[in-house]
Amino acid sequence: MKRKDRRNRRRPMAEINVVPYIDVMLVLLVIFMVTAPLISQGVKLDLPQAQAKPQPSEDNPPLVIHIDQSGDIYLDLGDASPEQVDQQQLFERLEGALRADAELKVMLRADESVSYGRIIDAMVAAQAAGAPSVGLVTQPPLEETP
Q1: What's the rounded Cα separation, in Å, for the pair 133 and 119?
Q2: Which residues have a Cβ under 8 Å from the Cβ of 79 and sit 6 or more positions away?
Q3: How far apart are alpha carbons 127 and 121 in whole angstroms?
Q4: Can you give the chain as a three-state secondary structure string?
Q5: What is the CB neighbour count within 10 angstroms for residue 146?
């Protein structure tokens, strides 16, 4: 009887118990699912480059948000002259225009003295209205004369 028990103990284990690994994987998955929305809280934007080439012209003119020195917002839908709007009107008009044509591009043209917060407010309104990205209009740097 003792001989049989001794033989059974010496057999090598041919299987790996994966249940603890699956438990750890599921715990990590839950942690990533809970923390992922907390990490991406920023405003998506395409940063402008000073030496960027101009965008090729397309059939549809872009929607242009203008912000002047005093911080007033104007919206140019391309059919008439820009009209002054407040933050809520900006959102509503952009949402209506983007609902009609989701391929429209949104450009932001702001005076350099406008506060960063005012620009972010306009970009947030555009993003909330459904704009996938907002382009920033810049001027090419002035050439220095020797």
Answers
A1: 14
A2: none
A3: 10
A4: CHHHHHHHHCCCCCCCCCHHHHHHHHHHHHHHHHHHHHHCCCCCCCCCCCCCCCCCCCCCCCEEEEECCCCCEEEECCCCCCEEECHHHHHHHHHHHHHHCCCCCEEEEECCCCCHHHHHHHHHHHHHHCCCCEEECCCCCCCCCC
A5: 3
Q: Are 59 and 41 in contact, with CB atoms under 8 Å apart? A: no
Predicted confidence (pLDDT) per residue in 39-48, tens digit: 655 444 444 4
- Name 83's Cβ contacts closer than 8 Å, sequence gap at least 6: 74, 75
Tens-place pLDDT, residues 101-138: 888 889 898 888 888 899 999 999 999 999 888 888 87
